[in-house]
Amino acid sequence: AVAGGERGRQSGTTFLNGHSTQFLAMNRNKRSIALNLKDPEGLSIAQRLVETADVLVQNFRPGVMDRLGLGWEAVHALNPKLVYCSASGYGPHAEDLRKPGQDLLAQARTGALWLTGTEEAPPTPCGPFVADVHAATMLAMGAVAALFDRARSGVGQFVEVDLVGAMLHQTTQEVVTALNSGAAPVRPTVPGSPSIEAPYGVHATRDGHVAISLTTMENLAAGLGDSDLLAEFPDKQAATDRRQELNERVSAVVATLTTQECVTALDDAGVWCAPVNDFPAMTTDPMVAWPRRRLSVDHPEAGPLELVGNPIQVNGAQLPARRPAPLLGEHTVEVLDELGLSAEVDRLVDQGAVGAPASTDAAAAAGGVQR
Prior knowledge:
The chain is of the alpha+beta class. About 40% of the residues lie in helices and about 15% in strands. The strands form six sheets. Strands 4-5-6 form a three-stranded parallel sheet, with helices on both faces. Strands 7-8-9 form a three-stranded antiparallel sheet, with helices on one face. The two termini are about 20 Å apart.
């Protein structure tokens, strides 16, 4: 709705001067135009934008865009070169298209909740929204591929991604192993992947936790100072076959050390390892706090913001933040001006076809919109 904007503006539990930090985190470098797509003139404006756009991205439930008059066939007729990207919870052929799709539900459906955690723990969600982020990333890759193809064919394509498909893609190794071996993954005794060879997992230290990844048994024995370990677990096959015994052995040694002592000893022996950071520790870890991993922007209402930088570096340079996350309808007037509708702005706002921020200029208060 024009009044409230997209659901993401109200998502999360932390707000800065009324603005969701989740929305602020994910929507920099965008403009916002508020349209009422159920108003004929609001729909007409959307159609005019479609006529000159390269890509359209939507994540309504299947069928909603068709009912609004902005489905693939209608849009393709308006602009055959446009790449149409659609994200949904379960895809267009789901058994029940009315069911809402969401990150946690996709993790649940695909077994990811069961894969995460230990044998004695309940199904455990991944901390970050992995289905949402991976689906969005795959949709962006699909859009780029379709744009590349358009340069050759001159025609846009219909690109679809759903959360369940994205989570299956995330769990490809486990799913393919289970489908072709007939054996379901066994949840580990310590947090870690159930489908990868040992040693692999998270162990408690005296003051925290350490993650130990793929390494040779020779290096692990040296790092732990356990001279008998190599005789009992001479190779990866023995370690993997007796994973639980190995985990108990490693945990017993690691529990006697501080996290820093453990990481130093394992590093010196060439063992792949890392401290398990909580959020205060993460912000000071030199591997994470590298300046190019962050950037700063000023938001007109939320104030100065520190954001996560784009992980892509181009020629050694960080991709910039050109603008902060937009206010609802912040660029409505700007976009309507570009469409040659500047004389219609006040009428369209009064009619409810579009939304624009209230003016803060007393001289323009009678007009009602900010220019």
